[in-house]
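Q: Structure tokens for this one, please.
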Amino acid sequence: MSDPEELGQLDNLKSAEEAVAEPPELLANFGPKEPVHVPQWISFEEFGRMFAKVKH
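A: Here is the predicted structure, written as tokens:
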């Protein structure tokens, strides 16, 4: 990225740093696949087993 107008939009860019513009298609391939995290329910028994081997 070398356009002074675009670089001016970056608030925290230091003089020793450089910026690179990435196409949205590239970023979409590395983002989370699920748009919203869906919690999985577990029973009270399963919950209790999660702490069976915890040592203080």
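A few notes: Residues 24-30 form the longest helix (7 residues). The radius of gyration is 23 Å.
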